[in-house]
Amino acid sequence: MSAKPTPHVAVVGAGVAGLVTALRLVGGGVRVTLLESSPRVGGKLRVSEIAGLPVDEGAEAILARRPEAVELVRELGRGDDLVHPGTTSASILSHGALRPLPAGQVMGVPSDLRALAASQVLSPAGLARVPLDLVLPETPRGDDVSVADFIGARMGREVVDRLVEPLLGGVYAGRADRLSFESTLPAVAAAARGHRSLINAVRGVRAKAPADPGPVFATLPDGLGSLPPNIADAVTEAGGEVRVNATVRELRRTPDGWRLTVGSARDPEALDVDAVVVACPAPPAARLLAEEVPAAARELERIETASMALITLAYPASAFRRTPPGSGYLVPSVEDRQVKAVTFSSVKWPHLRDRDPGLVVARASIGRVGEEHTLQRSDEELKAAAMTELSVTCGVAELPVDARVTRWGGALPQYDVGHADRIARVRAAVAAQPGLAVAGAAYDGVGIPAVIANARSAAGRILEYLESRGETKNDGEAREAEGARP
Length: 486
What we know:
Blueprint: E1 8-12, H1 16-27, E2 31-35, E3 47-50, E4 53-56, E5 62-63, H2 67-75, E6 90-94, E7 97-100, H3 113-119, H4 124-129, H5 147-155, H6 157-172, H7 181-184, H8 186-192, H9 198-208, E8 217-218, H10 227-237, E9 241-243, E10 248-254, E11 257-262, E12 269-273, E13 275-278, H11 282-289, H12 294-301, E14 305-316, E15 328-330, E16 339-344, H13 345-348, H14 350-355, E17 359-366, H15 379-394, E18 402-413, H16 419-431, E19 436-438, H17 448-468, H18 475-483
Parallel strand pairs: 1-2, 1-13, 2-9, 6-15, 13-19
Antiparallel strand pairs: 3-4, 5-8, 6-7, 10-11, 11-12, 14-17, 14-18, 15-16, 16-17
């Protein structure tokens, strides 16, 4: 009797979610084909040189206090390469001046009233409003509520506008009056269900944090954008296939599994597989699922995305009349500035500073949801906006020696009110289709560790499905195989 063929799984999208899904699947003894429409893997992780230094064009750090990303780097044999920030001290540009981010806050929600007052981020009236939270009756919120509605009701609108929204803006480029309190601030939201006062809820969150949690962030010396090619190499070394410039145009169920139509309309290729993981962003995922899983597609279509641009500028250190303030600063939208955040990469990361102490590299972020018109300007106009920002805040009076504009269209999914219920409906519809799973930043968190976690979960569901058909090793063996990887 001939041996049963190895099950074949297609993964659509080679961002972090797709790469991690593929790695988990090949570790489970599955034949994998990873399909990416663009010419490169990595999605929003990309690195290139600026003034001779490797500087990320997308996310530049992983959250080190959540284990998934650090564990992945170690699995790839690069654990010893991890580096940590020299400083995480950040500022808020509020009422026209850079002010320290107050101690005792969690994603901008304050718990230390003295530190909040000392920071001078809020006006006297805004500061006086905050402690009313301690005596106000409970604020009803139902299943979900916007960040602005709940925190504004407890602490006043200034806390929302000048603390919470700038921090959330760095993650989602979103608006606090639309973002889901439950989905974007889950730890605070959970704690707030057990406390009438939001201040006391945040104090509880902080009290539960480890006394010495270690560094908050980590990256790789050649840029976090070097991680996706490392994952892709591990996939191919384990027998998987990684294909770029391979657009999946259609996904249909067959009697034995799934058929993907890959390539151009003029020269389409049919790829038949036993199972599929759709690991691309919400808009293309919705298009692929429209025929076979219309209920999921409708929900995914409702997830809006924000576009942004990152302007990277390299200056001689002498150009700064004032030393760059810590790792960077955030700009509340109420300040009516074009730039929403600035990171001083060569201050934040000692390995960059050490490679060229005579340079200061700054990354300025422009673009929020609903402000796509700001990104319709030319690269030169965006550079000019970033240069103007640094001249105002840091007294920079020279031209940069190098500059780069990176545009990320529709890059950030918006976790608006009701997001968790929406994703539950997506997953319920997908789960009804044997051999199908979804993964990516649109579901359980936009941070790299969260994406890794849901990618591994999606791969696990596919392995369980294949095991139920007697087509692969059991899940315990799969985990063991993955853990045995060098």
